Each structure stands twice: as structure tokens, then as C-alpha cells.
Amino acid sequence: MGDAFCSDCKKHTEVVFDHSAGDTVCSECGLVLESHSIDETSEWRTFANESGDNDPVRVGGPTNPLLADGGLSTVIAKPNGSSGEFLSSSLGRWQNRGSNSDRGLILAFKTIATMSDRLGLVATIKDRANEIFKKVEDQKSSRGRNQDALLAACLYIACRQEDKPRTVKEICSVANGATKKEIGRAKEYIVKTLGLETGQSVEMGTIHAGDFMRRFCSNLGMNNQAVKAAQEAVQKSEEFDIRRSPISIAAAVIYIITQLSDDKKPLRDISLATGVAEGTIRNSYKDLYPHLTKIIPNWYAKEEDLKNLCSP
CA 257, CA 50: separation in Å to the nearest integer? Predict the structure, then answer.
């Protein structure tokens, strides 16, 4: 119901909207004030079974070029006690018995998507991991291998290739029980398999300590000034021949920066946030110690402050 001016009644009257015909009718004299009007509201319709669900979906999912049917196959839903229970359950059983070459891929892609969401990864990394798994699966040589470790390794390689690396420990935390050793073996297998397929080594990208710095600092709740100092220190540390892994260097730099600030972080907290053992952080700190005056920014700490740090 609404108000509009009726030319016959010569006044504003209540009008009725006939949605099926698109007419606007005067409630007093019956004059059609407007016909075939366009309904600009959303045309949501539900195709869910009669379960009372408010499902506004009118289209299927996006196409997936990695699947044989483009991801546009039909899946028969489970019955919900309606009159078509017998028919739908029978069709569902026949569909499950039928061969679907993409069933394994669909499950694998769902697992990769779940792991990506838990790590907060962008869609490009997830898509790259799907492509890597599809290439490995096409070789038909991955049977008998740990599927969870294989998918986690695909995600690890995708992160490296997209210049958004994650540590093996981070990947392991969402790998459904796969161990670091299993993921490492799966990664070597994938690199070897894809290398044989293309005839050239797989490009993994170079890991730098700075790639992990912002995330590690965020995990520790460090302020912006400390984060900026840590990033500058890590960049300067690359000028020296420090034979430690980038992750270990990042953890050691964070330890140094926090010790120079008012908000000192215990070594145990840094170890938990970075996934680096306390002993490894100490050894990396020992290697960085002779270069502190050249690594730590002058605006963050004076030379006197550096001398007050505990010697390794």
C-alpha cells in the first residue's frame, strides 16, 4: 500500500500494487494509475528443497578449468522426507556409484581451500596450489603417498612462488596431522615430479628474513616503531655473511629489537611466535652480535644502548 494522486478522484488516495501485472491501482475508484511498471528489487528465488531454508542462491558456482566438466556437474541432494524421497535417494545412489574422475580433485581443492582460509592466504595462492596439485595428479604417480602432506606441500610451494612464503611449521599447523618430515618429503617429490615433466627445475622463489618480519611482529603485538626498526635491521643484516636460515635471523633480530625497547619480550614468547627454537635464536643472536652497530638503525638505539645488551 502507498499514496498517489488519482486523476479521477482529484486527490491523493491509497494505491494497491499488483506485482503480477505490474499495475498500480487506486483503492477507491479502481483506476489503473500506472501499468507494466518495472520491479527493481532483487529477484531472489530459492531452489532448495522444501526445508524452509532461506536460500537466495540462483546460480551455481564459478567454472573451474582444472576440472574435466568445468565444475558445472549436477549433484543430487539428499532427501529430506518429502514425497520425492524414494526417487531422489535412488538417483543419489546411482550418482555415487557412477564414475566421476574429478571427485578426488574436488575433495583435494576443498582441503586446500580450508588450509588457505585458516592461514589467511589470498585466492591467488590457493589457485596456484590447485594448479600444482593438478599437475602432480596428472602424472598418476602419487598413489600410496600421504594425501594431506602432498596438499600441504603444494600450498607451501605456492606460497613460495607467489612471494608470500610461510614456514613449514605454519603449514604443518593446518595440515590435518601431517608432520614436518612428511611435508618435506612431499615437497621434494613434487619438485622432482614437476621437474621431470617440464624438463627444467621448478622455480621456488628466494626466501628473505624480511618476508616473515611483519607477521612475526604482529604475532608478538609489537608497536609500529619497533616493527619499522626490525624491518630495517633485517635488510641491513643481508649485507653480512650470516650463515643462518632467514627465519632464524628474523627471530634473532626481533629478540634484539625487543630487548632495546621498553616492552621487552621473553625469549620463550618469541620462540612461540616465530616457531624457532630458543637455542637457535640464541645462536643466531651470537652471529649477529658483532654487527649490531651496523645493523640496528641509529634512530632506534644509540651505541651506548647496544653496549648494554647482554653479550652472547
Answer: 61
Q: What is the pTM of this model?
A: 0.69
List the alpha helices (DSSP H) in the chain.
Answer: 85-97, 103-119, 123-138, 147-161, 168-172, 180-198, 210-220, 224-237, 246-259, 267-274, 278-288, 292-295, 303-307
Question: How is 100-166 classified by DSSP, letter by letter?
Answer: -TTHHHHHHHHHHHHHHHHHT--HHHHHHHHHHHHHHHHTT--TTS-HHHHHHHHHHHHHHHTT---
CB 128 within 8 A of CB 158: yes
The strand ranges marked E within 7-66 are 11-18, 23-26, 32-34
Taking Cα atoms as reference points, which of 254, 233, 253, 250 lies closest to residue 299?
A: 233
How far, in Å, are 124, 128, 212, 214 from residue 135 at the CA level?
17, 11, 29, 33
pLDDT tens for each residue of 124-167: 999 999 999 998 888 877 777 888 999 999 999 999 989 889 99
Distance in angstroms (rounded) separating the CA atoms of residues 186 and 285: 32
Q: How is residue 289 annotated by DSSP?
A: G
